[in-house]
Amino acid sequence: MVLSHAMWVSSLLPKKVEHYEIASYGTLVQLAMTIGHADVAEILQQTLEEEKETDAILTELAENNINQQAEGERRRRKMRNNFQRV
Ligand SMILES: [Fe+2]
In angstroms, what is the C-alpha Rg of the chain? Predict the structure, then answer.
C-alpha cells in the first residue's frame, strides 16, 4: 500500500485538533467540579461528549478514505502490471 505523506497528514490533523479539544474540555470539567460549579461542569461535559463523537466520526472518515485510496492504488498498480505484460 502506497499512500502519500500529505494524505496521511491531512487525515490526521483534524483528529489532532479534536484531541486537544477533548483534553481541554476534560480539564475544564474537572476544574468546574473542583471549584464547586457542577452546573457549568455538566455543560462542559456535554461539549466534551460532542468532541468525542466528532473524533469517532473523523476516525471513521479517515479509515474509509485511506482504504479507498489504498484500493485505488492497488487497482492502478494491477492495471499497470497487466499493461506491461502486453
Ligand atoms: Fe471539535
Answer: 21
Determine the distance separating the centroid of ligand 1 and the alpha carbon of 79, expressed in angstroms: 41
**pTM exceeding the 0.70 threshold for the entire prediction:** yes
**How many Å lie between the centroid of ligand 1 and the Cα of residue 34?**
24
How far does the centroid of ligand 1 lie from the alpha carbon of residue 73, in Å? 31
DSSP state at residue 3 = -
pLDDT per position as a tens digit, 27-36: 999 999 999 9
Tens digits of per-residue pLDDT, 38-81? 999 999 999 999 999 999 999 998 888 878 888 999 999 999 99
User: In the chain, what are the domain boundaries?
Assistant: 7-85
3-state secondary structure of 4: coil
